Amino acid sequence: MVLAVKAVDLKIGYMDEEEKIYWAVRGVSFQVSESEIYCIVGESGCGKSTIGNAIAGILPSHAVTSGKLYIYDKKVIDNEKMDYTGIRGRVVSYIPQNPGTSLNPYETIEEQFYHVLSSVYGYDKRKSVETARRYLAMVELDPDKVLDYYPHELSGGMQQRAAISIALATGARIIVADEPTSSLDAHLRLQLIRLMRKLRDTVRLSLILITHDLVSAGRICDTIAVMYAGKIVEEGRGSLLLTEPLHPYTQMLVDAVPILGLKKPLKSIPGEPPQVGGEISWCVFRERCPVAFEKCGIHPPELYIMERKVSCWRYMNHGAR
Amino acid sequence: MNSIEANIRGAAYLVRKQFRKMRFKTGLAIVLVITILALLSPIIAPFPEEGLGYIPENAVAKARLPPNPVNIFGTDTRGRDLFSRVLFGAGSALVEILIVVLTSLSIGIIIGVSAAYFKGVVEHVLNYLIELFVSVPAIIIALALRLAIGPGLYVVILGLITTWWSWYARITYIYARSIVEMDYVVLARLSGLNSLKIIYRHVLRNTIPPVLVQAVTDMGSVLLEATSINFIGLGVPLNSPEWGVIMLEGLPVITIAPWITMFPGIFLLITALGFSLIGDSLREELDPRMRRRWRLWF
Amino acid sequence: MVPGDIIRLEDVTAGYVVIKQGIKSIAREKMVVLRNINLRIKDGERVVIIGESGSGKTTLLRVILGLLKPFNGRVFVIGKDIYSLKWRERVKVLRQIGYVSQDPYKALNPSVKVGTILEEPLEALGISERGSRVKDILRLVNLPENVLNMYPMELSGGMRQRVLIARAIIHDPEVLILDEPTSALDVSMQAQIVNLINEIHRKLELAVLTVTHDLGVAQYLADRAVVLYRGEIIEEGDIDSIIKNPRNEYTRLLVSSY
Fold first, then answer.
1. What are φ and ψ of residue A112, in 5° steps?
2. How does pLDDT run across A147-189, given as a tens digit for each residue?
3. By three-state DSSP, how is residue A227 classified?
4. Cβ–Cβ < 8 Å for A205, A198
5. Residues 91-150, chain C: which have Cβ within 8 Å of A?
6. Inter-chain residue contact A14 with B20, CB threshold 8 Å
7. Could you please report the per-residue DSSP string of B97-137?
8. Which residue from B7, B186, B191 is facing C120, i.e. has the nearest CB?
């Protein structure tokens, strides 16, 4: 199995003018294979967007890193060094939260394809239109209804697909999508989910989805990683993680999601999610955890239980390292 | 609207931040030095009456002397100590800048905000006026004023105010327009709050900071414009302590006494540069850099 | 306690006038966004308007809030036809509405302290003794007293949302109107806000009108639901029955894609 992305104890922080480092990602390790949809789920401030940015190669210049990140065996992050040559924009493509903003409002879709393809591959106009048609069809957009239009003339759902198809046309093997479902209405969300699955199977695309929408994640993803305060607290196969959560945080997240037709009481998680900050040596969830005990003074290691990875002392006796 | 985020920590914090930047420190240093020279000119100037324009007794003998130990900048065509004149000229320069900028800012902000807040006919009329005045060069107004009231500092100041207010009005209008559509303004109006309070608390507080920064950056340009008007003789009369006028007086003899035009010119450029550096440094703070930091909290 | 309806829309058709510039003429075209809307909200009732983007929900809210005069039909707030009143009189009636807008980031003036923001509705009413009321409301929405001295940007999204809600209810309105109260929030904060809205409904005994596209949230906030599609009300009734047995095709689509 080819590994599209591999992170080993990756830490990412931001340095401000006073040379203080605020850690957003506190040491995560994970792998994404080819032809896999991997979701990183968490509340705002947990660091999921930062990881997405790291994979896409768009970390800001004042970012500080440590640990290793590999993309198809190329080491893009090697402790403090970052080297994305040949990767950024080629192997990995990024689709931001509002897809409309990643499209140039002054160019038609056809022009945008040309712009990108001519700079990456040197295609001429004819070849780029040909390629555009192919990729638009892949995302189920009718080229004749899209090519001559400006982004603002397309609906939100269509903009998103157009952005995805441009990303694919650059030859991306990995697409990082930040909150792809948040600006979409419910039925459009379903369509997008179906499209992503199709791309995963036909083109063998690796998709990294960053979202706080648990429900959609459960529907699309092969693997879900739950993040809290810069660490992955649980990781496992798709919907199983949500129906049988192990980590207390995952459990509380699931409890807070409304289920249609079932009026269970909505339980919110007391307290606020933590902001980026200094080093933490205790379990990151300790303050809000209802079942924390003495051992939680040290951050728990990752334990493997069946196909699940959990970072919680409660499973110490159940799992193996 | 990142100027708003700057607002929260207060102007004091913003200013303290600037002190880390070389650009700001240089600009501030220049402006402070010029201000101190201007304020202390009656004391520092070796020949204060000459500085003010009076012609000394042995004028002919002292005319057009190159820089020497007694007159460190030399003397002008009428034998006056150039250094003293330049020093007093600094005072004029600052007065010109301050009055013009403060007045046109005040007028411009009031008109810009009124156009944006009251909309309808008021908006149309004010916009029309703004666009009209924005396109008029100050020199034309200065010429008209000069013909009407004769020479004097008023000509320059009034001429500049008449055109600059529209510039600030336009900027304010553009900012205020988007502020007025914000939910918090709509809510305030719906709750029946007094219009003036709404304008002060919601509109002005968010519109003034960026306009203010623009004004600081503009101070250099105002100085240059004012000096130009004097330089072509449309403003203060000859012999006044004003850089532009000194430079004008030095023009006919520029080949034999270049220092007369040169020294005020240098001071002019340096002062304009000082303001420019300060404004530039402030402006940088209010845009991309602020945005980058505050993203962490979202 | 108010007899009759707090809010009533009678056969409202509304939209915007678009000015189209032709070569020889200028045409004013009516763009109709809402058609024949009939809506009633009774005292103490919780109503949810379910609408996706493009359904006309934003226009509907503007009509109810007195910001957009409809082409046809009438809008009654506490029995008064608001569009027949002059602005001053209209404002007096509209005070009975507490409104929470959609974007918690745009709805608060960033250069004003939270304390002033909260006091503003009371200030507008000319009430000078505001301190205790402010403290009571803070307790109700579960915000610590020190937020009064903070600026909006210093608060988290969830706290900001609560400030908005506090501001909307501080002057004791008859009805609370919320526009997508949970869309900008994380799942755990959504739950907090939904629970808070219901608590406020119970404690202050006011009517609540929520506009949302999220069926899950609608479930918890409605006694009665109204489905808005392309400017028309296509289904109406008890929220649980709508979810179990959606009659309209569009409603079925909404439920199945949740």
1. -70, -40
2. 888 888 888 778 888 888 888 888 888 999 988 877 777 777 8
3. strand
4. no
5. none
6. no
7. HHHHHHHHHHHHHHHHHHHHHH-HHHHHHHHHHHHHHHTS-
8. B191
Q: Does C165 touch chain B (CB under 8 A)?
A: no
- Cα–Cα–Cα angle for C119, C170, C52, nearest 5°? 110
Confidence band, pLDDT 50/70/90 cuts, at residue A319: low
Of B293, B297, B298, Cβ closest to residue A16: B293
pLDDT-derived band of residue C1, with 50, 70 and 90 as boundaries?
very low
* CB-based contact A62 B298, cutoff 8 Å: no
pLDDT tens, residue by residue, B88-113: 999 988 988 999 999 999 999 999 99
State in Å, rounded, how far the first CA of chain B is from the last one: 14
> The tokens of C36 are what?
């024949």
Task: Give DSSP secondary structure letters for chain C.
Answer: --SSEEEEEEEEEEEEEEEEE-SS-EEEEEEEEEEEEEEEEETT-EEEEEE-TTSSHHHHHHHHTTSS--SEEEEEETTEEGGGS-HHHHHHHHTTEEEE-S-TTTSS-TTS-HHHHHHHHHHHTT----HHHHHHHHHHTT--GGGGGS-GGGS-HHHHHHHHHHHHHTT--SEEEEESTTTTS-HHHHHHHHHHHHHHHHHH--EEEEEES-HHHHHHH-SEEEEEETTEEEEEEEHHHHHHS--SHHHHHHHHT-
Q: Which residue has the tokens 């968490």?
A: A42
Asked if C121 contacts C83 with a C-beta cutoff of 8 angstroms, the reply is no
User: Is ipTM over 0.85?
Assistant: no
Provide the H-helix boundaries in chain A: 48-56, 99-102, 109-120, 125-138, 143-146, 156-169, 186-202, 214-220, 238-243, 248-256
pLDDT computed for residue A14 by the predictor: 86
Rounded distance, CA B14 to CA B19, Å? Answer: 9
Task: Output the CA angle C196-C202-C206, nearest 5 degrees.
Answer: 100
pLDDT at res. A54: 92
Chain Cα centroid distance, residue A109: 25
* Position A58 pLDDT exceeds 50: yes
Average pLDDT over chain C, rounded to an integer? 88
What pLDDT is stored for residue A16 in this prediction? 75
Chain C: closest CA distance from residue A189 (Å) = 8
Residues C234 and C254: their CA atoms lie apart, in Å, by 13
Q: Cα–chain-centroid distance for residue A178?
A: 6
CA distance B207 to A202: 53
State the amino acid at position A196 in one-letter form. M
Low-confidence ranges of chain B (pLDDT < 50): 1-8, 289-298
- Classify burial at B76, counting beta carbons within 10 Å of its beta carbon; exposed 0-12, middle 13-18, buried 19 or more: buried
- Give B166-185 pLDDT, tens digit per residue: 999 999 999 999 888 888 88
Sheet with A21-33, edge to edge strand ranges: A21-33, A3-15, A63-71, A74-78, A81-82
Question: Checking DSSP bridges between strand A206-211 and strand A174-178, what pairing results, if any?
Answer: parallel
With CB atoms and an 8 Å threshold, state whether B296 touches A22.
yes
Which residue of chain B comes nearest to C150, CA vs CA?
A: B8
On whether the CB atoms of residues C111 and B8 are closer than 8 A, the answer is yes
With a CB cutoff of 8 Å and minimum separation 6, the contacts of B292 are A60, A62
